[in-house]
Known about the structure:
Layout: E1 5-9, E2 17-20, H1 23-29, E3 32-40, H2 45-58, E4 65-68, E5 73-77, E6 91-98, H3 103-107, H4 120-123, E7 136-143, E8 146-154, H5 160-176
Parallel strand pairs: 6-7
Antiparallel strand pairs: 1-6, 2-5, 3-8, 4-5, 7-8
Helix pairs in contact: 2-5
Amino acid sequence: FEESNIVHFYPNFKESWKKEFDAIDNFFSLFFVSGSLFFQGSLNLNRFLNAFQQTLQDFPFIFAKFIQTQEQLFLIYNNENEIKTIQNYFIQLEIESNQNESIDYLINNLNLTFPNKIDNRILNGFCIDLNDLPVACFKLFTLKDSFSIGYFLNHCIFDQSSIFYFFKYLSQCYSNTLN
């Protein structure tokens, strides 16, 4: 394997906001949904990175982080740096490649498709201490004839239909992006 690369995407908007969670949000926030999508064919990496950046900017809530107090859980994005516990807002994309293998290799080794250079609290899929965690992280794995996109997404933000909407939008951005 080649060494994994990590790309951080940063927001380019100026809004600040905070969402206070109710009981239902609190319940769903404990879960990180994981999955991988597999594609046949080649991928232009620069085009993908541009499309991914565009998609993230059009889903600004994805840059938020969790803040947990004794009384309440919040999802927050603060562009004014008023909250000192949050240093950076970014989305992490790991990129890995193995040009000697085809899609069957990843299908038989699903664990390789998921992001793994992330906070260990996310890896279980269930997390009680959400403080300072992101709502999403991704991994792109390219092969000689295919690629996969793996993810961990917090369930309070992404349900199954919104996951597929997000990736459909990413696909449209990729199709419409020039190299």
